Amino acid sequence: MIVDVYHDIVCPWCRIGKAHLDQALSAWDGPPVEVRWRPFLLNPEAGPEPTDLMTYFREHHGVADPSQIFARVEQAGANAGLRFRFDRALSVPTRDAHRLLALTAPERQPALLDALHHAYFEEGANLADLETLADLAGDVGEDRAGMLRRLRAGEGTDALEDALRQSAGIVQGGVPFFVFDDRYALSGAQPPEMMLRALAAARDAAAGATAGGGA
Fold first, then answer.
1. In this predicted model, what pLDDT tens digit does every residue of 148-207 receive, in sequence order?
2. Cα–Cα distance between 80 and 15 in angstroms, integer?
3. Considering the entire predicted model, what is its pTM?
4. Three-class DSSP category at 113
């Protein structure tokens, strides 16, 4: 079974959604599940210079007090065992971070995504900085120097742009957006029990299709 997760790395609800999916998969007793991370840009026009996230919300969204918005996310994160420090977070473009994730070996991608989330939401890391991205790749077992060369060379750029175009045509209602075996979709950081229901529904639908095809 395949679960496609459409996400942006700087999306707090995507981080919470991943935690919920991880919880659901730890309780799942059905067929093996492959998770594929699909890129999406919340802010495709983000400038190259990092901007304090609080300032960004005030200047670009007209929100006088962003802390009220962030408090809701912080509570949802705490319920999922996650910590958010929005006072440290920066508004940055995420294309290079998505390229890094795609260039990383599939078995290391979950750990890398967790590391990216931790660095961004808790340490205030600049995820548009290639040296920072290479450090995080090295921390999860990738060849740091080799990954830095690949990032600097622009490897994966064309593939990323193709994937972003595909995501724009699939995502409905924002990210995170989960597609279970190309059969069922969930929008938002749904609780683990909802994801388990979607997994079971996709499994049962596949079994029914197989049985019907053999009749």
1. 999 999 999 999 999 999 999 999 989 999 999 999 999 999 999 999 999 999 999 998
2. 10
3. 0.94
4. helix
Which residues pair with residue 6 across a beta bridge?
A: 38, 177
Kindly give, in sequence order, each residue whose CB lies less than 8 Å from that of residue 58, ignoring residues fewer than 6 positions away: 64, 66
Full DSSP string of 131-189: HHHHHHHHHTTS-HHHHHHHHHTTTTHHHHHHHHHHHHHH--SSSSEEEETTTEEEES-
Q: Helix, strand, coil: what percent of the chain each, to 5? A: 55, 10, 35
CATH class of the region 1-40+171-215:
alpha beta
Residues 130-158 have pLDDT tens digits of 999 999 999 999 999 999 999 999 999 99
Q: 29-63, pLDDT tens digit by residue?
A: 999 999 999 999 998 888 888 989 888 888 877 88
- Locate the domains of the chain by residue range: 1-40+171-215
| Polymer length of the chain | 215
Q: Which amino acid is it at 126? A: N
Residue 82 scores a pLDDT above 60: yes
